[in-house]
Amino acid sequence: MNKVNTSTMIRTKDMTKVAMLSVIGFVLMYFQLPLTFVAPPFMKLDISDLPVLMGAFTMGPVYGIIIAALKNLMHIIFKGTMTAGVGELSNFIISSTFALVSSYIYRKHRSYKGAVLSMTVGVLAMTILAMISNYFVVFPLYGKVMPMEAIIAMGSAITPKITGLFTMMIYSVLPFNLIKGFTTSAVMMLVYKKISPLFKN
Questions:
Q1: Which of 97, 79, 87 is nearest to 23 (CA)?
Q2: Partners of 33 in the β-ladder
Q3: Which of the chain's termini has less CB crowding within 10 Å, N or C?
Q4: What is the pLDDT of residues 146-168, one digit of tens each?
């Protein structure tokens, strides 16, 4: 078999893996849990970042970003969007950051401690970016779909400490993303060794 055919087979295998993980991520987006003690109803917990992390850890950070993009694109196409694409944009930004940072560190420190460290840093990175992107981009865009006053009121119903957009980031977006990130990380630690051989090159 010549080198061209071998390269084609490798690319085809990678495309198949990416497609499979993207579909799994899309399906997992249907299984959402509201965290009403910390977040407004439109922010729900899911573990759809799990296949994104799996792809990034086994094939490389770029693959994780592609999977994050595809799962959100499928979500818009097949399920539709209730947020004019804002929710999917936010999911892509946060999911990609989580995968990129975590997989970059893990690929340099391939051990149990390295995995724990990589995902911890990944969660912190995605949480910080979530607060920045939500404050400057996502919530202002979402405010064009729903009045910002109504969004803040949802936060105030959770805790009176939420009085504006900044306090929404501190008392809602921050804890929500920490919970989501560490929940996904815990599941990843449980399943990685059993599932990762299916997706490694």
A1: 79
A2: 45
A3: N
A4: 889 999 999 999 999 999 999 99
